[in-house]
């Protein structure tokens, strides 16, 4: 028996401030984007179900945080992103893209407006160095400070329908009153943290920015509050059910980001790589449902006996009980309703399903 | 970790019983996590030890299963098509994968004690 993914051990893996806490919780650790990260604790399905029915927490400290401060911050961010940063207000956050000069995406990111002339960018772990170099390259002429704070912060995502109920007793802030994408300072178990009502699971929840030195104690408090630790395995099945693209799978330096349904991320403004973004995508990202056979990234997708695309993410869906996948297919075939996916030399029927596969309450 | 002494084990975590039944070890099922799909060989197929002849899929990964012996496939566990979780629940009994008419077992198979040491 050999497992295909999750291989290629990397030379020196970085550790988040919660590494010891993961080992104590019985995590199975795997290399991910240069980090030694928990893929699961008790079991993927149990963790997935905890997030759908109650609340789970993910260590996402490996993600990067860049702070942009100064009078030139807004103009700079407007020039390197596709969404309209001028629409943000202090205490609000939004999803955004860093388009490449030659097409594709450098990264997909979240931007939090801290105060006038101050923004926090949260970027994908595997893209920290690339994003940093890219942003540095375009700083010239802008009056601002760009600081990489990635090592200062631990980031915990507490996700699930019972998040507010379970956290409220330990915070003096009225959590239920906070809107989606709110970003605010709060006390949580006596710690000064920044909370954002955001997530990547399709459920309600908060992402918790806490100082690296305090992260482990906070993690232990969250455990005692009844939050289930959940690993990267569940994070991936949850985001796939919720139809969220993942950089390196649905987005990349070469994939046209408007292949996805996230067309709202591109606003009418001037920015880097605008010509590529406004060109019509040649492919479309679709959702597929299979009867029984799980399909995985890289499997060929057929329509009318011709290969028209490839699976970008695929898994058995713990919530729905059948395999689901996202696939990039030729735009000319994207309107078909039925496809086939080749699995180990045999083609299996796949039905096109509108994304997301699952919508939380 | 449960390793019944009457079985022989491959380094790739398959077990072979004296009557030619093949499955995956308790260690393997635990490493895989929740099994959601099993693809089994056709009855009558002749295989050589080390051939890839089945696939066990968990939620996240597909794992190849290698023949622990040369011979002919004589039966497959049909129940796994509707209840693949049997591989997790009962890796040495209800979760067996297939049976073979063994002509020659792989020379590299280990007894339970040795396998238990390597799979720690």
From TrEMBL, chain A:
Entry superkingdom: Bacteria
Q: Supply the InterPro entries for this chain.
A: GcvT, GcvT/YgfZ/DmdA, GcvT/YgfZ_C, GcvT_bac, GcvT_C, GCVT_N, TrmE/GcvT-like
User: Catalytic activity, per the record?
Assistant: N(6)-[(R)-S(8)-aminomethyldihydrolipoyl]-L-lysyl-[protein] + (6S)-5,6,7,8-tetrahydrofolate = N(6)-[(R)-dihydrolipoyl]-L-lysyl-[protein] + (6R)-5,10-methylene-5,6,7,8-tetrahydrofolate + NH4(+)
The keyword Transferase is assigned to this record = yes
| Enzyme Commission code | 2.1.2.10
Gene3D superfamilies listed in its UniProt record? Aminomethyltransferase beta-barrel domains (2.40.30.110), Aminomethyltransferase fragment (4.10.1250.10), Probable tRNA modification gtpase trme, domain 1 (3.30.1360.120)
Q: Where is the GCVT N-terminal domain positioned along the sequence?
A: 18-267
What UniProt keywords are attached to this protein's entry? Aminotransferase, Transferase
- Where do the Aminomethyltransferase C-terminal domain residues begin and end? 284-358
> Which GO terms label this protein's molecular function in UniProt?
aminomethyltransferase activity
* Its biological purpose: The glycine cleavage system catalyzes the degradation of glycine.
The text of the family note is: Belongs to the GcvT family.
Record's subunit section: The glycine cleavage system is composed of four proteins: P, T, L and H.
The protein's name in its UniProt record: Aminomethyltransferase
Q: Which taxonomic lineage is given here? A: Bacteria, Thermotogati, Deinococcota, Deinococci, Deinococcales
């Amino acid at each position: 028996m050999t497992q295909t993914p999750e291989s290629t051990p990397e030379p020196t893996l970085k550790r988040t401030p919660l590494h010891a806490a993961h080992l104590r919780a019985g995590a199975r650790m795997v290399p991910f984007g240069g980090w030694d990260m928990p893929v699961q604790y008790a079991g993927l399905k149990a963790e997935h179900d905890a997030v759908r029915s109650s609340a789970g927490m993910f260590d996402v400290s490996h993600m990067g945080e860049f702070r942009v401060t100064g009078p030139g911050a807004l103009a700079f961010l407007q020039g390197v992103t596709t969404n309209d940063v001028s629409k943000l207000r202090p205490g609000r956050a939004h999803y955004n893209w860093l388009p490449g000069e030659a097409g594709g995406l450098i990264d997909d990111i979240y931007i939090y407006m801290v105060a006038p002339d101050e923004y926090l960018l949260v970027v994908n772990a595997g893209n920290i160095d690339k994003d940093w170099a890219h942003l540095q390259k375009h700083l010239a002429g802008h009056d601002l400070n760009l600081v990489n704070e990635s090592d200062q912060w631990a980031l915990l995502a507490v996700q699930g329908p019972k998040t507010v109920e379970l956290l409220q007793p330990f915070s003096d802030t009225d959590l239920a009153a906070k809107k989606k994408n709110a970003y605010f300072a709060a006390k949580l178990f006596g710690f000064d943290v920044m909370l954002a009502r955001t997530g990547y699971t399709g459920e309600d929840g908060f992402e918790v920015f806490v100082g690296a030195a305090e992260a482990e104690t906070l993690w232990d408090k969250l455990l005692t509050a009844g939050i289930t630790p959940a690993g990267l395995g569940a994070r991936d099945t949850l985001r796939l059910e919720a139809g969220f693209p993942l950089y390196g799978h649905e987005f990349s330096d070469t994939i046209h980001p408007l292949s996805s349904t996230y067309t709202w991320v591109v606003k009418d403004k001037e920015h880097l790589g605008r010509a590529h973004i406004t060109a019509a995508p040649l492919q479309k990202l679709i959702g597929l449902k299979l009867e029984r056979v799980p399909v995985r990234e890289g499997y060929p997708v057929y329509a009318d006996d011709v290969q028209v695309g490839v699976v970008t993410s695929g898994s058995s869906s713990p919530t729905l009980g059948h395999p689901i996948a996202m696939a990039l297919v030729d735009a000319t075939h994207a309107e078909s309703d039925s496809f086939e996916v080749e699995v180990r030399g045999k083609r299996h029927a796949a039905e096109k399903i509108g994304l997301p596969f699952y919508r939380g309450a | 970790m449960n390793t019944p002494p009457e079985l022989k084990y491959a380094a790739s975590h398959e077990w072979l019983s004296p009557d030619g039944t093949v499955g995956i070890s308790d260690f393997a099922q635990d490493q895989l996590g929740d099994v959601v799909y099993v693809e089994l060989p056709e009855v009558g197929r002749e295989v050589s030890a080390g051939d890839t002849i089945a696939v066990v899929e968990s939620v996240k990964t597909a794992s190849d299963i290698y023949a622990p012996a040369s011979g002919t496939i004589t039966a497959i566990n049909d129940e796994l098509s509707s209840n693949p979780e049997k591989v997790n629940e009962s890796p040495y009994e209800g979760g067996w994968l297939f049976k073979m008419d063994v002509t020659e077992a792989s020379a590299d198979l280990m007894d339970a004690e040795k396998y238990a040491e390597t799979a720690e």
